[in-house]
C-alpha cells in the first residue's frame, strides 16, 4: 500500500494570500441575485443595472433624487412618539423606537418639508421604510397632516412618497385613526384645488395604502412596487391558494386601473415637474 | 342560538339552566319554588356582574364575537320601522357583507348602513363572514351620498373582522375604496353617528366609522389589527393572542380613555346577546339623544367639528 500513502512531506504550505477588501463594496441584487458593485448601483440611483430592480431608498436619498440641491428644509423633525399604550410585545415599543432612531437617525418613519422641484415650490412627505417598516402611527399621521395643511395654506403642490407596511400596531387604535385624520385633511386640499401627487415605492400596504397613498390626484408607482391593502401572505393564508405571478405589483395595478403610470426612477423628477407645470 | 356560549360564561349558563329546571318542576308539579328561583336569579345576576367586571381584554374580544351577539340587521329590525334595503355599488356588484337602506328611526327617516355577519354556515358564507369587498364600501358611500342629497342623517353599525383579503378585492381596489370613504365621510354635510356593535376590525371597520359621534357598545372591541394578527406578527406565535389583546387596548373603556370614542353604550347584564330587545331599545334611545343634538347644528359647523375631531387624534410630543 505504500503507493497509496504519501511518503514525502509536502514541500511548502500553500500560502493563502488574503487581499483586504473593505466590507460592502459589492452586494447582491435582491431580485436577480447578481453581484453588483455598490458604487455602480448608487450611481444608477439604486436601480440594479442588470435586472432593473428598484432597490429601496431612504428618505433623504429620495429627497436628493427629487428636490433641487440645497433647497430642502426639513419641517417638524422634532415630533416624536409618546407610547400612549405603553405597548410591549417581546420588546418594549419605547425600546424599539430608540433602536430605530439610532439606526436611521430619524425620529419616526416620515420626513416632511418644503423645497423646489425643478424650480417649482412643493411640500414633500417622504416615508422611510427603515424606521419600523415605514409604519404609520401618531407621528407619521400628524406630520403628513401638517404637510397637507401647509400645501393648502401656501397653495404649494403636495408630493407624498409612500413606502410603508401599514399602520403601526404599537399605537393601536390611534394608528388607525391616522388614516381618517390624513384622509380628512386631504379633503381640504381637494377643495383648495391644489395638486397632490402620490408616489408609491416598494412596498405600500395596509393603512397607508388605504388612506393618503391611494388618494392622489395623480398616482405614480415605481416599477415592480408591491401595492395592496392586505399583504400577499395574509391573502394566501386566507384563500389557501398560490397567488398569480406579478399579483399586487405596480404593473398589475396599472392594468386594473388603480394607477396613472409606472415611471422609472431616473425619469421620476422630470415626470413630476412636467405634470405640475401642466397643472398649475 | 341556545347552547352557544363561551368558557367563562359557563357558571352563568349553569345557573340559568337550574332556574329553568326549577320553573319547569313547579309548573308541572305545582310545587312553589319561587323563593329558590328568586334567590338563584339574584345569584346569577351577581355572578354576571362579577364576571363581566373583570373580563380580560381577550375575553371581551370573544364576547364581541359571540355567536349569539346581535348583528346589524337585528338592530335595524328592532330599532327601526319601514326599512327599505338598497343594493349595489353601480360599478361592479353588490356586497352582502355590508347592508344599507332607508328606515324610520323614532321621528326621523335615516340612512342606516352596517356590516352584516351570518348565523349558520350557509348564511355566514353568503355574508362572507362579515368581510366586505370593495363593492360594499362603494355601496355604503353611494348610500351616504344619497343621504346627503336628501338631507337625511346617517347611522352606521360597525361589526367586521376586517375588509376581505382576497384576489378580487385587491384587483378592484380595496385600499382605494376604504380611503375614498374616509375622505368623503369627513366631508358629508349631514349628521353621521357610527356605532361599533361587535368587532371593529381595522380599516374595514373605519371605512364606515368617520362620524360626528362614535359610540361603542360596552362589550365591543375596535382595533388596528386583530389580536391574532398582532400575535402572529409581533410575537411570531399565534398562541399569544391574550398578550396581544392586552397590549392593543381595544375595549370600549380603553378607547374612551384615549378619546377615540364619545360614549360607551351599556348592554344588559351578561351582554347584548342575553337580551337583544333590551340592547336595541337602549341603543335607540342613545341614538335619539345624539340625533337630536346633531340635527340642531348647522351643516357647515357639523363638517368643521367632525374634521376637527379627527384632526386631534394621536398622541406625540414636540
Summarize the helix and strand pattern of chain B as letters.
HHHHEEEHHEHHEHEEHHHEHHE
DSSP summary, beta strand count of chain B: 9
Structural class by secondary-structure content of chain B: alpha/beta
Largest interface: A-B, 64 and 56 residues
CATH topology of the largest domain in chain B: 2-enoyl-CoA Hydratase, Chain A, domain 1
How big a fraction of the residues of chain A is strand? 15-25%
Strand order of the largest sheet of chain A: 3-5-6-7-8-9-10
Biggest sheet details of chain B: 8 strands, mixed
Describe what this molecule looks like in 3D.
The complex is a heterodimer of chains A (280) and B (318). With 280 residues, chain A is of the alpha/beta class. Chain A has two domains: 18-55, no CATH class; 57-279, Alpha-Beta Complex (2-enoyl-CoA Hydratase, Chain A, domain 1), CATH 3.90.226.10. Chain A is 34% helix and 18% strand. Chain A has nine helices and ten strands. Chain A has helices at 38-43, 59-66, 93-104, 138-154, 172-192, 206-209, 232-239, 250-255, 268-279, and strands spanning 26-28, 35-37, 73-75, 80-81, 110-117, 120-127, 158-164, 196-204, 218-221, 261-262. In chain A, the strands form two sheets. In chain A, strands 3-5-6-7-8-9-10 form a seven-stranded mixed sheet, with helices on both faces. In chain A, strands 1-2 form a two-stranded antiparallel sheet. In chain A, strand 8, helix 6 and strand 9 form a beta-alpha-beta unit. In chain A, helix 4 packs parallel to helix 5 (172-192). The longest helix of chain A has 21 residues, at 172-192. Chain A is globular and about 95 Å long. In chain A, 46% of the residues are buried. Chain B has 318 residues and is α/β, with parallel strands linked by helices. Chain B has two domains: 8-54; 61-311, 2-enoyl-CoA Hydratase, Chain A, domain 1 (Alpha-Beta Complex), CATH 3.90.226. In chain B, strands 1, 2, 3, 4, 5, 6, 7 and 8 form an eight-stranded mixed sheet that branches. In chain B, helix 1 runs antiparallel to helix 2 (34-53) and helix 3 packs across helix 11 (241-248). Chains A and B meet through strand 4, helix 4, helix 5, helix 6 and helix 7 of A and helix 7, helix 8, helix 9, helix 10 and helix 11 of B.
